[in-house]
Amino acid sequence: MTDHPSNASVASAASADADAFVAACRDAIGAAHVLTDPHDTAPFLTDWRRRYTGAARAVLRPGTTQEVAAIVKLANTHRVALVPQGGNTGLAGGATPDAAGGQAVVNLARLNRTRALDPSNNTITVEAGVVLAEVQNQARAAQRLFPLSLAAEGSCTIGGNLSTNAGGTAVLRYGNTRELCLGLEVVTPQGEIWDGLRALRKDNTGYDLRDLYIGAEGTLGIITAAVMKLYPLPAANVTALAALPSPHAALDFLALAHRCAGPLLTGFELMSDFCLRLVGKHFPQLRYPFAEPHAQIVLLELSDNESEAHARTLFEQMMEQALESGLVEDAVVAENLAQSRAFWDLREHIPLAQAEEGLNVKHDIGVPISRIGTFIEETDAAIAQAVPGARMVTFGHLGDGNLHYNVQAPEGVDAPAFLAQYQAPLNRIVYDSVHRHHGTFSAEHGLGQLKVDEATHYKAGVEIALMRTLKTAFDPLGLMNPGKVLR
Hints:
Elements: H1 7-29, E1 34-35, H2 38-41, E2 58-60, H3 65-78, E3 82-85, E4 104-107, E5 114-118, E6 123-127, H4 132-141, E7 144-145, H5 158-164, H6 171-174, E8 181-187, E9 193-196, H7 209-213, E10 222-229, E11 231-232, E12 236-244, H8 247-261, E13 265-272, H9 273-282, E14 296-304, H10 308-325, E15 330-333, H11 337-348, H12 350-357, E16 360-361, E17 364-366, H13 372-386, E18 391-397, E19 402-408, H14 415-436, H15 452-458, H16 461-474
Parallel strand pairs: 2-4, 3-4
Antiparallel strand pairs: 1-2, 5-6, 6-10, 7-11, 8-9, 8-10, 12-14, 12-15, 13-14, 13-18, 16-19, 17-19, 18-19
């Protein structure tokens, strides 16, 4: 008779192997950068929204690409799963370990060097842990623009931006992070280093590995550095707020702005009246910008390489047409940088005001731009029928079809109870509507662990099968961020 090991002995062996992994990591990257004490690891184990809290065998903080590669090789030897992490600002739980305690977090904040800045080639080469705002500042010092801009830019990192293919407020003109990247350096799941740091805009030499890693959320390998595109620094930015009667009018105004401004149009953000009322309620210093209420507000921005006078003249002509045609009910143009910043503060404080108001059901959806007005009308009506009194916080990047379509509990209703009762049915209403309109249930935040099941539900079987084939080919041991993107 063959004796089989007990569950206790298997668990003991696994624990011993994990302990050996941690000890080997101390030798590889230095004991000071291997965190195991609960007090030290706690900041790395909860996501930004505080929706997920995991446990980890250790938090590892490598300082070079070679150290990342050494960690991955050790993980292969000891069969320890790794969770790559940047600034830990993600909104889908993609950088949080599971609750079992056997995974290790690989935080890349120490990979924070700029390797090259080439103004003539309009490129900057940075490591994964460089904070987005630092890339913007270095570009500006060289009279260049790095256009990726989002609310977390003071703490999110380039590696995280690439891993989630972050969007932001300038996608309309410059595209998502994928469009801003020319080359990557990646540590593969086997611990090898792929040097794809090519600062080239044309390179037709086979499969585009770069685009596979971007948006993969660390499930195919760990991005350690990137070559990012820069652009000429605009001579002027002109910002305005326009009041409109409906989302349909906003779409017509967007078409007019495209005709009048063309590539100068760099921002076109939609905000409902309730969004700005909520901001004013919780941040009184940010006042409602118009004397009368309006159903929708658009924040738009032009970036001009000629002059501020040229930009303002163009802006005034566009606004004159919009007002005369009735698309726009009222408008105010920022007179200086401080007023422009105040306009953007209104937009950026919407998520903060929501948090102050209480728990809510968030959606990061995208539909074809032409369908946005109809989507909002139909889905608002379905939600009102399901939850009378629900308050819609609808805002986002209208210019690229991405809305943050959030549902706040009815006035006076306990927010946690509302979330527990209605989150699942509201998600189904919204995502089914998105699907009918040929959209996506995750436009810029990624899947992480939050939406991994939605992917299986809404994506075609052949697409999921192809994704699984890629995952198995790249990561046959399943050690790269398991449970994210795919189950």
